[in-house]
Design brief:
This protein has 14 helices and 2 strands. By secondary structure, it is mostly helical. It has 2 domains: 75 residues, DNA polymerase, domain 1, CATH 1.10.150; 170 residues, hpI Integrase, Chain A. It has a two-stranded antiparallel sheet. The longest helix has 17 residues.
């Protein structure tokens, strides 16, 4: 049996990881535990190879990331397993266009779906991850920023643009809400990641937008793309996005498949 599994689960829940990420990392550890009786370098290498034979590189690395975080948690950093190389695509996939982003916001305002309008607008105007958005409180909107701290001692500030801050405070004041979490469900409790993702798909269907581009992380991608189009400072964007490695941020220099198609059609005439 692996040691400190329950403590590891509590540790993950105390981080800024999304519910899905926490679940995935725990699956990695449980999957290893079902296959091997003890933790050893030999067994870890065997586990890594079994993943390579069964899954695509992206899934393999996700499982290995979970195992590596567990190894760090129990003080066995030296046993960390190397990731496999992923073949990167030359374009971004499933990123909502700026036109569809604006159209969605306009439809939500028109239909007086104010909480969902602000869900979409906060995601698209701050670059927040959905797990971070769910931590947003009225007090943060009033202050104009949300400070995040991880157990690793890392600090990140999510800025709320002045125009968004003004509009959001007007909405919250009209709702007579001066404290507590901003985004709530019908029972008055903080809404979940799944609750937001499910509702966004329903709006995509209602407004005839491709559902493939209407999901929480798509708006984070939209934020990054729109930011670089207006302020070509990739190092600053990396800080805003909370990326440890600027190479992660460079993906937003790539065009979407739709943008590539448009340029090809406009430029190539021979």
């Amino acid at each position: 049996m692996l040691e400190k599994i329950e403590e590891f689960e509590e540790y993950l829940k105390g981080t800024n990881f999304s519910e899905n990420t926490v679940r995935s990392y725990l699956t990695s550890v449980h999957q290893y535990q079902e296959k091997y009786e003890r933790l050893s370098i030999k067994n870890l290498k065997s586990y890594r190879q079994s993943l390579i034979e069964k899954y695509r590189p992206k899934t393999v690395n996700l499982r290995l990331r979970g195992i590596n975080i567990y190894l760090e948690f129990i003080g066995r950093e030296k046993w960390r397993q190397n990731f496999v190389k992923e073949q990167q695509k030359t374009f971004l996939e499933n990123v909502i266009s700026e036109a569809d982003y604006d159209y969605l916001k306009n439809c939500l305002i028109r239909d007086k779906e104010y909480p969902w309008y602000f869900v979409v607008r906060f995601l698209g105007a701050t670059g927040a991850r959905i797990s971070e958005l769910l931590q947003l409180k009225v007090e943060n909107v009033r202050a104009g920023y949300l400070d995040l701290y991880t157990k690793g001692g890392k600090f990140r500030r999510i800025y709320i643009p002045k125009a968004l801050q003004k509009d959001a405070m007007a909405w919250l004041n009209a709702e007579k809400r001066d404290s507590g979490f901003v985004f709530l469900n019908q029972r008055g409790q903080r809404i979940t990641n799944r609750g937001i993702a499910t509702q966004l798909k329903k709006f995509a269907k209602r407004y005839n937008i491709d559902p493939a581009v209407v999901y929480p992380h798509s708006f984070r991608h939209r934020f990054a793309k729109s930011f670089l189009e207006r302020c070509n400072d990739i190092a600053f964007l990396a800080d805003l996005m909370g990326h440890d490695n600027i190479e992660t941020t460079r993906v937003y220099l790539r065009k979407t498949a739709m943008e590539q198609r448009k340029i090809v059609d406009e430029v190539i005439e021979w």
